[in-house]
Design brief:
globular; 7 strands; 14% strand; 9 helices; Rossmann fold; single chain
Amino acid sequence: MHGRLVHHPPPSLDARRRTLCLLLLTPSRRIFLPAARCCCQRERVSRPRTRSDAVPQAPQQLLFLPGASGNRQFWQPLAAQLRHPARQVHLGWPGFGDTPAQPDVRGMDDLLDLVLQRIDQPTALVAQSMGGILAVQTALARPELITHLVLSVTSGGVDMGKLGASDWRKDYTAAYPQLPRWFVDDHSDLGPRLGELDMPVLLLWGDCDPISPVAVGQRLAALLPNARLRIVPGAEHDLGLSHAAQVAPWLDAHLRGALDGDT
């Protein structure tokens, strides 16, 4: 079930600054604005189009991937509420946030290599924004070891240009010139390959996110064979942090292969 999309007027300067702060999710620098118009009034769930009869393999590791903040603490409030017994690992991105740069990390392919080095056992990937692109790439490279995907407010490697997303790149580079430019220049196109991913996928979206609007989640839900989309009213690009208590039971249910309607 999909909601009506609302077309917003061009963002003000303050709104653009808020978009950048949400993209980097740096709490000490976040700017708060009046509530934006949102496209739904209650939580909505879009169920998978198909389901495999096979029971998904249980993950032995939960690998948490942040967005452009590189903040290893982003997922920790949610992770602390999970009941799943798998080992938890939180990655940071060299050169982003408080993670020191590494001379051999010069592009998204190098970040992907860092993730792949961690995939040595059945693993569920939990990823936000930029991390979602790397999660999809990892699942395509190691489908036999990726048991589940959780993708939150990410492009997932699809073109967001016609899906109502704000163009944040120019403001991003102006505001944060010290961060890697290659992230801004990345235009990964993974859409044609998403149908290869048959592991269970949980898509988490907020209906007030200017960076990755609901239409992006709906597009991913249409391309991924075994995906469920949950839309949280009032949530923005920091959904995994701001709504950790609400999202944690969904993630637990996703990992244990709960039936529709279970929490």
